[in-house]
Structure formats: structure tokens, C-alpha cells
Write a structure and sequence with these properties.
Length: 344
């Protein structure tokens, strides 16, 4: 079981308004370094292009983090591949991977947030076709044995025996990200890719049938050298006291969901709704180290996932609390989870 954190580069509030975006990047680098120091397995940086989530260039942040960390895996969470050039994505992450000493991954998604489509001039009507084509090219570049690629598609110029550099020592791990679309589970299986399920609300158990679908499809496609790891990404926050954790995270999580609701057209959450999703089967993992440990283990028994990463710094959570939550995940939760799974 790999445990870790992911972030979109949350911006702090300053006297009732958002602070500078440059501060969020500095805070993010500090958080990644701490996660490495306390023994966490993975840290992800998700691509967004908004004032409150300004981590618009994950590969750049990960390359900087690679130079100041030693062991932790560094990944995007996610790369919005539909509006990126797969050649540049590969080059940027390969560079970061070389800096890190082979610790960088890519989690590639279509993008639940669509602000990058008008920003880079793409049509939302091509949402899935863009992703399918660009994912195919990215995987081909990554798997190339000599670094040369011949490829032709609809949305970018063709490549004819073109060398793409730099080349890390080995191909990078590339995961497919999904928010719960059955077709995405089948696509990952058909390509032999590991899969990351982003669960931002509701009951976690509702993803069990999708994971079963992914595993059954993987058996049927029987792709050579397939990687069938399953990762779960959820909101989460840890404090020494369970009530304090839930009350603190409620303030941050509710702000985020209210803000997103105005953009995406859903109602602001209530505290009752939040509490119902903070229970054993809920998507919100806010609580004490002991409680979070029990919930991770219980979920693992249901779905057999091999990685669980938490978004903690949502909604301008104070930076010191974010760092403390990372510390508790690494020094308290991770050892208990590992020991329990080892005994099991």
C-alpha cells in the first residue's frame, strides 16, 4: 500500500481575499519536501489554471521538488492530456524524471475541470477524441525503445521517424485517471494501464463495481506486461483529535465545494451532508490517525487498492495545518497501515 498526498497548489487567504499565487508554489515545494522526510510514498501535483488552484505546470514543480527530495515518487494528479501536446508532456516529465533519479510518473486524465479548453483553443465537443488520440501518442513515445516515433492523427502534425528526447533510463509509469466513467475503466484495461479513481464525494463503495469491471476487462484483454494497480484519490485531513480534524476540514472543504458549485451548477453542501460523507464509507477522510488508518484498511479489504492519496490543502486550509496533516499521515497512519497489511 502506497500512501501519499496530492495538491492543486491551494492559495491562502489574506485578510479576507486570496493571497499571491507565487506563495502557493513555495508552500507546495515545502509540503513535498516534508512528505519525503516523513516517509510517504508519493506526492502528486494536479494541473489547474485558476486563481485559487494555480499549479498550471506540474512538471515544472515536480522537477524542482525532484532536486530537493530523495525517495518519494512524484506524479501529476492529473495532467489534462486532452489540451496538452503529448510530445511536450513527455519531454517535460522525462526531464523531471531524470532529475529525480527515476521517481516521476504521469497520471493522465481528460480533465473534470475544463478551463484549459478555451485557454489553449480546444473544442469541448472533441473532449474524448482528443484524449484518446493523445493518450495513444504519449504511450507510444514512452514505450519507444530507440526514442524514434512514427505517428499520424487528427489533432496534431504527424511524426515520421522523429527522435524525441530526453530519454530516462526506463519508461515512466503512466496511469489513467477517471472520475468514475465505466468506459475509462475499460480503456485503461485495454491499454494495460494502471488506473486512478478520483472520488470527491458520495460513498466509496459505489466504485467497487467499476474496479471489478476494470479487473475483469484486464483479464479479458490480457495485454502483455499489463500493469493492473488501482489507486484511490480522495479528500482527506488528519489531526490528533478526530472532532478537530472534521471541524477544521469542514471549513476548507465547504468553501471549495461552494465555490465550485457556482461554476458547475450544484448547490452548496450542508454540514449534515459533510458529516454523512465523513463516515466509514464516505469519500471524505477527515479524522484522527487511528480513524483514518481503520478506514484505509477497511477500504483495502473491499477493493484491494495499492495506493491511496489525499487532497488535504483544499479551500485555503492554513499551511501549518496542511504540513501537520502530512506529518501525521507519514509518521502515524502509514506505519499502522503497513503493519496491519503485513499482519493480514
Amino acid at each position: 500500500m502506497e500512501l501519499g498526498v496530492f495538491s492543486f497548489g491551494d492559495v491562502q487567504r489574506k485578510v479576507g481575499k486570496l493571497g499571491p499565487t507565487h506563495e502557493s508554489v513555495t508552500n507546495l515545494l515545502e509540503a513535498i519536501q516534508l512528505a519525503d522526510e516523513v516517509g510517504l510514498d508519493v506526492f502528486g501535483v494536479g494541473e489547474h489554471h485558476t486563481e485559487y488552484f494555480p499549479a498550471s505546470s506540474p512538471a515544472t514543480i515536480l522537477a524542482a521538488a525532484a532536486a530537493t527530495t530523495k525517495n518519494i515518487k512524484l506524479t501529476s494528479a492529473v495532467t489534462v492530456l486532452s489540451t496538452e501536446d503529448p510530445v511536450r508532456v513527455y519531454q517535460q516529465f522525462a526531464t523531471a524524471d531524470i532529475v529525480s533519479g527515476d521517481r516521476v510518473e504521469i497520471i493522465a486524465g481528460r480533465g473534470s475541470s475544463t478551463e484549459s479548453f478555451p485557454l489553449f483553443g480546444y473544442d469541448l465537443r472533441d473532449y474524448d477524441r482528443l484524449y484518446a488520440e493523445k493518450l495513444e501518442l504519449l504511450l507510444q513515445i514512452n514505450a519507444s525503445k530507440d526514442g524514434k516515433v512514427t505517428w499520424d492523427g487528427q489533432f496534431r502534425p504527424a511524426l515520421n521517424d522523429i527522435e524525441i528526447v530526453p530519454r530516462p533510463k526506463k519508461p515512466m509509469d503512466i496511469w489513467l485517471a477517471t472520475g468514475g466513467n465505466p468506459e475509462s475503466s475499460i480503456r485503461a484495461a485495454s491499454l494495460g494501464m494502471p488506473i486512478t479513481y478520483a472520488i470527491i464525494g458520495g460513498h466509496v463503495s459505489r466504485f467497487a463495481p467499476l474496479i471489478d469491471l476494470y479487473r475483469e476487462a484486464s483479464r479479458q484483454y490480457d495485454v502483455s506486461h499489463a500493469d493492473t494497480r488501482v489507486a484511490i484519490a480522495t479528500p482527506g485531513y488528519i489531526a490528533e483529535d478526530a472532532k478537530d480534524a472534521k471541524d477544521t476540514f469542514w471549513k476548507s472543504w465547504s468553501w471549495t465545494m461552494t465555490t465550485l458549485g457556482r461554476v458547475r451548477g450544484f448547490a452548496a453542501p450542508t454540514r449534515q451532508h459533510y458529516d454523512s460523507e465523513s463516515n466509514v464509507d464516505g469519500a471524505l477522510f477527515a479524522g484522527s490517525p487511528e480513524e483514518i488508518t481503520e478506514r484505509i484498511i477497511a477500504l483495502h479489504k473491499k477493493i484491494g487498492h495499492s495506493r491511496h492519496i489525499f487532497q488535504m490543502d483544499t479551500g485555503q486550509l492554513p499551511h501549518d495545518k496542511f504540513l501537520r496533516s502530512i506529518e501525521l499521515l507519514g509518521t502515524k497512519v502509514a506505519p499502522m497501515v503497513r503493519e496491519a497489511l503485513k499482519s493480514e
